[in-house]
Amino acid sequence: MSVDWSWTADHADELATLTLSHLQAALSAVLLGLVISLPLAVLAHRVRPLRGLLLGLSNVLFTIPSIAVFVLLLPVSGLTRTTTVIGLTIYTLVVLLGNTVEGLDSVPARTKEAAEAMGTRPLRTLLTVELPLALPVIMAGVRIATVMSISLVSVATYIGDGGLGQLFTDGFQRDFPTPVIVGVVLTLLLALVADALLVTVQYVLTPWTRRQRSA
Amino acid sequence: MIQFDTVHKRFPNGTTAVHDLTLDMPEGGVTVLVGSSGCGKTTTLRMINRMVEPTSGAIRVGGRDVLEQDAADLRRSIGYVIQQSGLFPHRTVLDNIATVPLLLGWGRRKARARAAELLETVGLTADAGKRYPHQLSGGQQQRVGVARALAADPPVLLMDEPFGAVDPVVRTQLQDELLRLQRELSKTIVFVTHDIDEAVRLGDRIAVFRTGGHLVQCAAPAELLARPADDFVADFLGAERGLKLLSLVPLAGVPQGPAPQDGDWALRLDAAGAPLAWRHKDGDAADLPVRPLRDGDSLLAALDESLASPTGLVARVDAEGRLTGVSSRDDIHEGAARERDRCVRGPVGADHAVPRAPAAAGSTRDDVEGRA
User: Fold this and answer.
1) 8-state DSSP, B354
2) Considering the domain boundaries, does residue A213 fall inside one?
3) Fold held by B251-345
4) Do A119 and B86 touch (CB under 8 A)?
5) Which partner from A137, A188, B43, B206 sits 20 to 30 angstroms from B179, CA to CA?
6) Which residue from B minimizes the CA distance to A210?
7) B90 to chain A, minimum CA–CA distance in Å?
8) Rounded to a whole number, what is the distance in Å from the CA of A204 to chain B's nearest CA?
9) Where is the ABC transmembrane type-1 domain (chain A) (predicted)?
């Protein structure tokens, strides 16, 4: 198996387009997943009986095979990017919802009580105390969800999308390994870069968790 | 002033935390709530800023019923120092202190300026303001907790075992600092502790609670120590309550005479007249140290010094440290006995009791009300 570099050079533009499309699908799914997870997590955190129901549901959704999800979505949204994003979003929920609930649980009761006793109203406590303190755990979930989505986008090749995944079918059908290898490498790079960026974002957003400076 | 009027708190699980409490906490004074765990002292404190809602009865702060005020607004007008500081781990020390001013809409600049000012007030350096709470020691965190409570200059301060988690040396320092601050600020402070020594040191009045949320006695420390209402209070005060009482009485009332000139031991003074040491007349023995006492020092300190002194005499000095005379061990004992008599037989409570509008027919004495 060797890489045909001239093919790579000839298809540079196409590779760039596929990479961007791949990234866009994955990021859309994570963002949508967050938008859905945050309010649900707050609900699950506050209302005990709902916790098991919501977390259980996100687990059940996670166990549906990905191809089945896309097939099931076809009557709803057809062979579109929307189908890809919805399908991926469903898989992000299990980590995003779980980690956000866990993050909110990890906020010390004493700290919440202090906020309340200072006269902070509940919504402000959620936004300025609970979510910031839950951020490290939430971000851990966002990182997993992002990497997972980036690797899952390829599955959407079955519905004519799939970003870099299209390179796999292309290479497979023509018995030509170069696109497959390039596709795998680019997917990996994309995941690594996205993860590194998220680590940086977290570092910037959570200055209090950094190593203690010497006094 | 904070008034509790037949306040009852029963939790949903059926336990009564506070039992028909009627109590006044005087303005500008420190009221300490003491008792063993589960006696309702913390619940009592938390009802003042509505962290806990009473089942029945009324609580008024500055004449206004707390239940008629918006809970968040009420809390912003009352400083709160929580156990183990309860600082926000994700905010710098400065921003922690600025919490309530920011909630009140002062704007970031003004709130931070006020926070910086308070850092100094509680004895922290400006550098500490930029750090995060976990980068400070336990004692420093407690200081930040006090600064945060003082930020919006509230007239009332609630302190829930604020010094419970620090070591004894730091604890004493923090108590001294609080007393110093209180002399400057004259806040109405409600302080919860299970440590009777802390209560005696800090309290203008001490309210002793018994399990089941019953107030047993509320009195000034000296009165409480001299006249515990019952065996429960006496037990709670401990075996050394006589000595604790002496720690509250200043030496000023004990007579003093001229320093001995012709005894075995004489006081050696420096040029300004400050005592240096006890010296034996024949030089048979080495000089013994002297710890001169001022009028404001306690009878307990005087007793201690008279035991250490070779003659049983205590050197007394003025504010500048110059010798004014000596007091004998007998004088100190008499002073102690006199003080005890005064507390035990005197018109107890007359000069301490807080007059209040009688809610119902009956005595105005708190300790009687507490048992009623």
Assistant:
1) P
2) no
3) CBS-domain (3.10.580)
4) no
5) B43
6) B132
7) 5
8) 13
9) 19-198
pLDDT in tens, B150-166: 999 999 999 999 998 88
Instruction: Give residue limits of the domains in chain B.
Output: 2-239+355-371, 251-345
Helix, strand and coil content of chain B, in percent to the nearest 5, comes to 40, 25, 40
Of A113, A119, A215, the CB nearest to B86: A113
Domains B2-239+355-371 and B251-345 share a fold: no
Query: Which residue bears the tokens 């299990």?
Result: A94
In chain A, how many domains are there? 1
The token pair at A131 is 């979510």
Query: Is A214 a member of any domain?
Result: no
What H or E segment, with its residue span, contains residue A14? Answer: helix A12-46
B102: contact with A, CB 8 A cutoff: no
Give B251's Cβ-side CA count (13 Å radius). Answer: 28
User: Which residues of chain B lie closer than 8 angstroms to A136, CB-CB?
Assistant: none
Q: Domain B2-239+355-371, what fold?
A: Rossmann fold (3.40.50)
- A113 CB neighbours in chain B (<8 A) are 51, 82, 86
How far B339 CA lies from chain A's nearest CA (Å)? 42
Write out the residue range of the structural domain in which residue A140 sits: 5-204
A65 touches chain B (CB under 8 A): no
ipTM over 0.90: no
**Min Cα separation B73/chain A (Å):** 6
Does A111 sit within 8 Å of B88, measured CB to CB? Answer: yes
| Number of residues assigned to chain B | 372
Task: Tell me, yes or no, whether A209 lies in a domain.
Answer: no
Best residue in B77, B88, B125, B158 to probe A by mutation, most A CBs within 10 Å? B88
Burial A77-99 (b: 16+ CB within 10 A, else e): beeebebbbbbbbbbbbbbbbbb
Q: Do B83 and A212 touch (CB under 8 A)?
A: no
Can you give the pLDDT at residue A23?
94
Q: Which residues of B237-264 are buried (b: 16+ CB within 10 A; e: fewer)?
A: beeebebbbbbbbbbeebebeebeeeee
Instruction: Give the helix/strand (H/E) hosting B300.
Output: helix B299-308
User: Is residue A9 domain-resident?
Assistant: yes
* Record: contact B75-A117, CB cut-off 8 A: yes
Within 8 A by CB and 6+ apart from B33, the residues are B41, B44, B45, B190, B191, B192, B193, B207, B209
Q: Which helix (H) or strand (E) holds B176?
A: helix B168-185
**Chain B contact for A133 (CB, 8 A cutoff):** yes
CATH number at residue A121: 1.10.3720.10
Q: Best residue in B80, B82, B90, B132 to probe A by mutation, most A CBs within 10 Å?
A: B90
pLDDT per residue as tens digits for the range B75-115: 999 999 988 778 999 999 999 999 999 999 999 999 999 99
